[in-house]
Specification:
This protein is of the alpha+beta class and 592 residues long. The protein folds into 3 domains: 104 residues, Nucleic acid-binding proteins (OB fold (Dihydrolipoamide Acetyltransferase, E2P)); 262 residues, BirA Bifunctional Protein, domain 2 (2-Layer Sandwich); 124 residues, GAD-like domain (Gyrase A, domain 2, 2-Layer Sandwich), CATH 3.30.1360.30. The protein has an 8-stranded mixed β-sheet, with helices on both faces. A 5-stranded mixed beta barrel has the order 2-3-4-6-5. Strands 13-14-17-15-16 form a 5-stranded antiparallel β-sheet, with helices on both faces. A hairpin with a 7-residue loop joins strand 8 and strand 9. Helix 4 crosses helix 6. The structure holds one RNA strand of 77 nucleotides.
RNA sequence: GGCGCUGUAGCUCAGUUGGUUAGAGCGCCUGCCUGUCACGCAGGAGGUCGUGGGUUCGAGUCCCAUCAGCGUCGCCA
């Protein structure tokens, strides 16, 4: 006599033939042939076909005939090999089926608002409203499981490298700079507020002072910024910090972790070490501080080729000290004039004043440049520098250098997208190094940190002398396929240096004391040199999954307006609740 | 906050120049069907054309406003 085996819907094979099995799950689809009913039973492990024959199991057949999509049932019967020729090779369990002896309905389902058994296109608002149903669909089942495997790989790897997972608080203090904070009113302290962390930055530094040497956390972070595609008000970071590291130490651990993550979660081999570029080189060659290295199409400074040009716009640009940058598109000569105009119009939306082009057509170059400017010497020189050949096109941008780089960088990505050169199955990592310590704040014209104010200056720059904008930082970004995965730095551990940085950034002594006094005080007690990095989990999983939207890798995401359409949040609260919190609302009247 | 796209059956969509009773596929309901696996066949139900106003003899279609979803830019030390 066979013992009854409780099985998932993904595990039975012909090896189990003859055993009695009990399966529970959702009705994926049914096929009622009148005399014979097929049920595809689903759980997260797979699909198993249950067959009900009214001659041998009349009661089960009656139940089976009443089943509808998403009913939850328990089916019991013998595992048997499917008749020859009826195997389903698309299913892991496709060699067998369950010959049902009994079927119990555990719960009925209303007709779902959208199909569950496939990934057919459905309005995202509807999916978010019924997220628990959306989660049952194959796509989200896959990406949430992928996320689990990836995060588990991170924990395993960092554990093996001596890191401790430590939680840091969610109710903390408002930070003066950076993104807007979410505030939480305190009932017990009238008029005072906690803030939700934008990152565990200060706490992880204090954990280093606290002697834990190697810390990590899968940390939830909150930023109350304006909405944007691929942004969520709460998101997750792999946050880590270590004592006594060099930049090389952090890089080595990250490369190991990412390679392990991609291997363990995806089976993808990632070559290490990753290529490295300086910040300046990334901007010069790719027009971005997060270059997509899956393809070349580099930028070229072709200013010298235009010395003495008849083309007034470029001549003027050169005389003002602006740059002329070129980008060559392989096969670009096949673009029509109209296509070129569209590209130029696009460049304008990126902030370009215009876009000149030279099409290296087989019957001679065509160009938006005036004939007089398009000398053979110029064409030869551009071809030599950009390595463009007949059949290609060369695009030219003249502007202030950093602006021209940014525009050319966007154009480069756009053309690559058009040409399908950004293969989501290919993973091109790189490090961007030698960031400036400070940037010019466009609004106030003051200094702002390129990363954050705790970043240590590069060796040799500790004196902070000379032009602050020329100072380099021990700051490193890891980039994948044109997306910044994470950003880190060696931190300042010397309280005097930290004070100097705050002063350069325009903080008064009072400000520093009030906002960062606890950190500076901690540094007075033998703070070890330390550094670390934080990586965006949602983005990494998105790139692994080859998906389009970060919402595809989060179980319960907010919509584009940062609302949860399922639970309907945020919502106004009762006046009594506000009163208890000592909070009064001041809502602007609706516009009329 | 700005700009763009989209709102027609439960879902995905079509709907001509403004003109009779607004359609299709899937889903749903009923019946038939013993080897299907997106089963098949026959029949049926299902619509405030997002909402409000306007133009017109007549509006799904044109205009204005508004709401919602998605995308995009500013913003994100």
């Amino acid at each position: 006599m066979n013992q009854l085996r409780r099985a998932t819907c993904g595990e039975l094979t012909s090896a189990d033939e003859g055993s009695a099995a009990l399966l529970k799950g959702w009705v994926n689809t049914t096929r009622d042939h009148g005399g014979l009913i097929f049920i595809d039973l689903r759980d997260r492990f797979g699909l198993t076909q249950v067959v009900v024959d009214p001659r041998s199991a009349p009661a089960a057949a009656e139940v089976a005939a009443s089943l509808r999509s998403e009913d939850v049932i328990a089916a019991q019967g013998l595992v048997r090999r499917r008749p020859a020729g009826t195997e389903n090779r698309k299913l892991a369990t496709g060699e067998i089926e369950i010959a049902a002896e009994s079927i119990d309905v555990l719960n009925r389902s209303k007709t779902p608002p959208f199909p569950i058994h496939d990934d057919s296109d459905v309005d995202e608002g509807l999916r978010l409203r019924y997220r628990y149903l959306d989660l049952r669909r194959p796509h989200l089942q896959r990406s949430i499981a992928l996320r689990h495997r990836a995060v588990k790989a991170v924990r395993d790897y960092l554990d093996s490298r001596g890191f401790l997972e430590i939680e840091t608080p969610m109710l903390i203090k408002q930070t003066p700079e950076g993104a807007r904070d979410f505030l939480v009113p305190s009932r017990l302290h009238a008029g005072a507020f906690y803030a939700l962390p934008q990152s565990p930055q200060l706490f992880k530094q204090l954990l280093m002072v606290g002697g834990f040497h190697r810390y990590f956390q899968i940390a939830r972070c909150f930023r109350d910024e304006d909405t944007r595609a691929d942004r969520q008000p709460e998101f997750t970071q792999i946050d880590l910090e270590m004592t006594f590291p060099t930049q090389e130490d952090v890089i080595e651990i990250m490369e190991g972790m990412l390679a392990h993550m991609f291997e363990a979660a995806l089976g993808a081999k990632v070559a290490t070490p990753f290529p490295r570029l300086s910040h300046a080189e990334a901007l010069r060659r790719f027009g971005s501080d997060k270059p997509d290295l899956r393809f070349a199409m580099e930028l070229h400074d072709v200013g010298p080729a235009f010395t003495g040009t008849e083309f007034k716009i470029f001549a003027d640009a050169l005389s003002r000290g602006n740059a002329i940058l070129a980008l060559a598109e392989t096969g670009g000569a096949s673009r029509s004039r109209r296509d070129m105009d569209a590209l130029a119009a696009l460049a304008t939306t990126f902030g370009a004043k215009g876009l000149a082009w030279i099409s290296l057509a087989p019957d001679g170059p065509k160009s938006s440049l005036p004939k007089s400017a398009l000398t053979p010497q110029l064409v030869d020189s551009l071809k030599a520098q950009t390595k463009a050949q007949e059949g290609d096109a060369i695009y030219l941008l003249a502007d202030e250098r950093s602006l021209a780089q940014a525009i050319a960088g966007k154009l480069r990505l756009h053309i690559a997208d058009e040409r399908g050169m950004r293969d989501p199955k290919q993973f091109a990592f790189c490090w961007v190094l030698d960031f400036p310590l400070f940037e010019r704040d466009e609004e106030s014209q003051g200094l702002q940190p390129a990363h954050h104010p705790f970043t240590a200056p590069a060796p040799g720059s500790e004196a902070l002398s000379g032009d602050p904008l020329q100072l380099r930082a021990q700051h490193y970004d890891v980039v994948l396929n044109g997306m910044e995965l994470g950003s880190g730095s060696i931190r300042i551990h010397d309280p005097a240096l930290q004070r100097k940085i705050f002063t350069l950034l325009g903080y008064s002594d009072d400000d520093v004391e009030r906002k960062f006094g606890f950190l500076l005080e901690a540094f007075e007690y033998g703070a070890p040199p330390h550094g670390g990095i934080a990586l965006g989990v949602d983005r990494i999983i998105l790139l692994m999954a080859g998906g389009e939207s970060i919402r595809e890798v989060i179980a319960f995401p907010k919509n584009q307006r940062f609302q949860d359409l399922m639970i309907n949040a945020p919502t106004p609260v009762e006046p009594a609740a506000l009163k208890e919190l000592h909070v009064r609302t001041d809502i602007p009247p609706p516009r009329t």
